[in-house]
Amino acid sequence: MRSIFKEKNLNRKKILLRLDLNVPLDNGKISDTTRIDKILPTLNFLIQQKTRIIILSHVGRPKGKIVKELSLKPIGEDLKKKLNTSVRLIEENIYEIKNKDFFEKFDEEILILENIRFYAEEEENDYRFAKHLASLGDIYVNDAFSCSHRAHASIHQISKYVPSFSGLQLDLEVAALNKITAEITKPITCIIGGSKISTKINIIKNLMPKFDNIIIVGGMANNFIEYFGNNIGKSIKEKNCSQIVEEIILLSKKKECKIIYPEDVLVSKNLNGSSKNKELDQILPDEMILDIGPKTINKIIDIIDNTKTILWNGPAGYFENPNFANGSIEIAKKIIENNKTNKIFSVVGGGDTVSLINRLNIANNFNFVSTAGGAFLEYLEGKKLPGITALN
User: Which of 170, 194, 309, 322 is most buried, most CB within 10 Å of its CB?
Assistant: First the structure.
């Protein structure tokens, strides 16, 4: 992969910049600007290099049709304020823009093409559409790691028709993920949660030969607790998963990777209730497991203390109720404490985990926080991402 940050002589070059600006919109207002804020360094760099920037991006799933509510207009306005520069949204049909000279019509430094998914050809990875997009610029830059698991025209096909580079955010994401999949400093630990073990089985299988410890928390831990002969009451669990649990346990022995699941838990009769600490053999039929208990927290803290690299993907409990947020908070506190003394390299990813650390306002205390969702998980599964292979 060639990074745009290592290129010289970018002056006046027309840069086709693929970004993930898929932010939540509520009546035309942006409710969370995290994805916009993360790409500002790349935009500032390209502005300093006196390039002309054409942004390609999408919002939502318009499925090849124009949906006014999914316009990039509010995003352009937000960028204009944050970059203190001129930004224009180009609403005309992309096919009517015939050559690279359309900058001459405008004085703006940054042009944004309207939602790229208004065109069905985008998701079809159509080569004619990609070729036309490529004809509008001199250089293509992918800074949308979170979209790079999609074989779409502006992510994958376009790189065949124009010199192609990676942007800063994509570089940072790949570097962080390499530190937990390839260039590993051991011992290495994964804390993994979520409600369904079947959605994480391929990640666990891929990481197990490289990791020393895999700590199972959240809803998927209930399958392990039940597998070992304990009643889990009315706790969330995935059905018909005994074979998957057995497969993980057998593989962990073969690969010499320790599997850790809760030794004690916090329970309640409903999601909004108060918490009771229980041993695994004390759970009643009308109770549900909603967090890890103090013994489990202490065990995880000991493991973190003896870990040099950590991946955290999934909260330990139902953190939306403060009575069941303690497990996740204690895990976060310990990772942060070790981060401050450079004892550990930490990568955090997954929607719920990112929501938790944003709620606690601690995102800046980890080495890397990924908001990439599906691309993050597919990379951990060992899959080749079309957007990354296109740049190679």
Answer: 170
Q: Are residues 122 and 264 in the same domain?
A: no
Residues 6+ apart with CB under 8 A from 24: 30, 31, 32
Angle (CA) 93 48 174, round 5°: 75
In a domain, 175, yes or no: no
Q: 158 with 255, same domain?
A: no
Structural domain boundaries, residue 196: 184-380
Same domain, 24 and 75: yes
Residue 108 DSSP symbol: -
Q: What is the pTM of this model?
A: 0.92
The C-alpha atoms of residue 321 and residue 318 are separated, in whole angstroms, by: 6
Q: CA–CA separation, 51 vs 228, rounded Å?
A: 61
Nearest to 14 by CA among 176, 153, 160, 133: 133
**Is 160 part of any domain?**
yes
| Interval 316-346: pLDDT, tens | 999 999 999 999 999 999 999 999 999 999 9
Distance CA 264, CA 282 (A): 10
Instruction: Please check whether residue 238 is in contact with residue 224, taking contact to mean a CB–CB distance below 8 angstroms.
Output: no
**Residues 142, 169: Cα–Cα separation, whole Å:** 9
Same domain? For 349 and 257 the reply is: yes
Please check whether residues 216 and 151 belong to one and the same domain: no
Reading across the β-sheet that carries 264-268, which strands appear in turn? 276-279, 264-268, 288-292
Q: How confident is the model over 247-297, as pLDDT tens digits?
A: 999 999 999 999 999 999 999 999 999 999 999 999 999 999 999 999 999
